[in-house]
Design goal:
By secondary structure, the chain is mainly alpha-helical. The protein is built from 11 helices and 2 strands, in the order H-H-H-H-H-E-E-H-H-H-H-H-H.
Length: 294
């Protein structure tokens, strides 16, 4: 994150406090803790021109929707709150909402000569919504015993997922063996965990999949929840890399993340699996994908 401080020193402090707020959810989950850290983050983000005042409106709306969805309420109003939360969140995750000036750290960055170029941003909007979901709606693990049980269930699935996805990607010829240690490694790891993996998993698995499975309420409902969430997850990724083979891999990947979440009921299992898969991809294979022949 050193690059962030060099480019936007004041705004960078806002990002740091946002990371601390996310970590506080697992360390000491009290609303006064994460909300205080969030307030400091917003103040620095505003003075660092990362956000504008108009950005507070969608954040307040989506926060209210997640709080309402956490209550024991059913029927039309719950459906309305969930739909509104999903629509606003997707708009934020795809950067359609005005008022956020996410910092571009590495424009047209290429991991290797055979890889496509990509712009690497620090996406403040996605991470702040993830914090609202975690703080207002989604339960997290609380004890060491839960951590041990979680790891016992997650690690084998994590390894299996990594093997399946990387072999599928090679079969579809969108990656190849390409071990490397890019100069952006530490920054990438931080951005990937807090501004990509956690936001994606707490929304798609922790909210969308959880709500569908809970409302359908049976094994078939769980399967439909995984399939529906994976379809939405892969469709959204078309905005970022519109390549059919890549979207197929994203869909299968999402199925695997969804299955482990469905089996454990713990969002941490999906986060760990997702982060492990992306990290293996980054260090050992073409990232994010090979330049495709025209």
């Amino acid at each position: 994150m050193i690059e962030l401080f060099f480019k936007h020193p004041i705004g960078a402090i806002g990002y740091v406090f946002l990371i601390l707020a996310l970590l506080s959810i697992w360390i000491h989950r009290k609303i006064w803790v994460w909300a205080s850290l969030l307030a400091v983050s917003l103040a620095f983000a505003y003075y660092g021109q990362v956000i504008e005042l108009q950005a507070l409106i969608p954040l307040l709306l989506v926060g209210g929707c997640y709080f309402f969805s956490s209550q024991d309420i059913s029927g039309f109003w719950r459906l309305f709150a969930c739909m509104a939360a999903a629509i606003i969140t997707i708009a934020l995750y795809t950067h359609f909402v005005k008022g956020f000036n996410n910092i571009l750290l590495f424009p047209n960055w290429r991991s290797s000569a055979s890889a496509i170029t990509m712009n690497i941003y620090a996406n403040y909007d996605g991470a702040i919504v993830a914090l609202l979901i975690l703080g207002l709606y989604l339960p997290v693990i609380k004890s060491r015993k839960e951590v041990t049980t979680l790891l016992m269930a997650t690690i084998p699935w994590m390894i299996l997922t990594g093997v399946i996805i990387l072999f599928l990607s090679e079969y579809l010829q969108i990656i190849r063996w390409d071990p490397k240690l890019p100069f952006i490694t530490l920054t990438w790891l931080t951005l990937q965990l807090f501004f990509v993996v956690i936001p994606e998993e707490v929304f798609y698995r922790g909210f969308i999949q959880r709500e569908i499975a809970k409302n359908l309420g049976n094994r078939l409902g769980g399967l439909l929840a995984v399939l529906t969430t994976s379809l939405l997850f892969s469709l959204i990724h078309i905005f970022f890399i519109p390549n059919l083979s890549y979207i197929i891999v994203v869909f299968v990947t999402s199925l695997l993340y969804g299955i482990i979440y469905q089996l454990t009921g713990k969002i941490e299992s999906a986060i760990i699996t997702h982060f492990f898969t992306n990290t293996c991809h980054f260090f050992f294979f073409t990232y994010p994908m090979l330049i495709q022949p025209t």
